Amino acid sequence: MFFIIFEYHIYRINKRNCVLPIVVANKNKMRLIKLLLVAFPIISFSCKSQTRVSRIEIVQPTVEQEATSIWRTINDITFFEKQGYTIKLPKDSLIDSLITKSKNGAFGNEDFPVIYTLVETKVFKQKNYAQAKLEVENQIDLINDFVSEIDTKKSQWDWKFKMFDKYKVVFTLYGTGGSYDPDEGVITLFTNIEGGFMKYKNPAYTIIHEITHMGMEYSIVRKYKLAHGLKERIVDTFVYLMFQEKLPEYKIQNIGDENIDRHLNKKRDIESLNSIISEFVNK
Ligand SMILES: [Zn+2]
């Protein structure tokens, strides 16, 4: 088994045309294994320059994370309903009673354990995320292209686009939509068991949108205390101007102050986004 695995590696590496030390003979199995143990790091090292390290990591959802998604959604249910959000929660009488409790202002941290137990025993299945995972895996190369394009251009911009070495993609089946954590580089994607996503069928659209949110959260959005609508409009405009050829269905949501469009409408405008927003908010 050991031998077969190593052979497989060598075969793959050889196919990529890397420098391959000559490994012959099968006379003495132990000697061959020893030789491979020495040769393998050399082979990996010589191949390093040809393989790109992915900046996107798909994280397996956990019971804890989904229980937290559900708890947060129930906790803010009155607000979400008022805003007219579509809310997804497990269909269970316990959840219904907790929603009522929350509307009466009696819901809190002490309700987390029962949610956790419900998720663990009746709701959570790893296979519910398999299709969504596959959909994202299929777009990894494209998303990495976006990240490296931003990476090579951002030094010419008059603002800091915050980047993470690794972006973690987490899935959730519950709540009101996706989210991002600008301190951790975590993107939470709202999905269903069929691997469907909100707004765009292709998850690359939403992932680059969230990466952009994290990129400008401190240097633009919080710096100028931008309202939610304007924030979304600027993030969308950035994605549209940067990647419209590769994301032909990308649309700028029609929210926020549309007057910004007169100042931000060419790819080159991204270079001076800080001056553009500074002038715009101080006009
Ligand atoms: Zn957004």
Gyration radius (Cα, Å) is 24 Å
Structural class by helix and strand composition:
alpha/beta
Measured by DSSP, the beta-strand proportion falls in 5-15%
Order of helices and strands: HHEHHHHHHEEEHHH
Query: What gap, in angstroms, lies between the N and C termini?
Result: 70 Å
Ligands bound here? zinc ion
| Number of domains as seen in the coordinates | 3
Please tell me about this protein's structure:
By secondary structure, this protein is α/β, with parallel strands linked by helices. The protein has 3 domains: 2-50, no CATH class; 58-126, no CATH class; 131-281. Helix content is 51%, strand content 6%. It is built from 11 helices and 4 strands, in the order H-H-E-H-H-H-H-H-H-E-E-E-H-H-H. The protein has helices spanning 2-15, 29-47, 63-75, 77-83, 93-103, 112-123, 130-137, 140-153, 203-222, 228-243, 273-281, and strands at residues 56-58, 167-172, 179-181, 186-190. Strands 1-2-4-3 form a 4-stranded mixed β-sheet, with helices on both faces. Helix 1 packs parallel to helix 2, helix 3 crosses helix 6 and helix 8 packs parallel to helix 9 (203-222). Bound molecules: zinc ion (ZN). Residues 209, 213, 232, 235 line the site of zinc ion (ZN).
